[in-house]
Amino acid sequence: SGGGSPTPSGGRPQTPPDGRPRDRPTLGVEAVDASDGPGALLVGVHVPGPGHTAGLVRGDVLLTFGGTRLGTAADLARAVAAARPGTAVGLTLRRAGGHQQVSVTPGVIT
Q: Is pTM, for the whole model, over 0.90?
């Protein structure tokens, strides 16, 4: 009698009854741990995709995502998973020895 199932308290998306995962935020990039310090080294940028639209390129090292420091590629994956699709997020990246600030709007995988 009351209305539905309890809301899970964890941050993981729940799989609906039809078995398909809910929309997840994505940058459309592939990253590995940077070898020369903290950060996530981009080894692939999907075209089209939110990362490409924001001007990210292969070889960029992402250092922060929305104010969260990125020590590894796994940190990037967690930060993106917690992002709101359609809401712009600030990134700090290292490219050719310099630091840049860019804004990226995560999209969704449907």
A: no
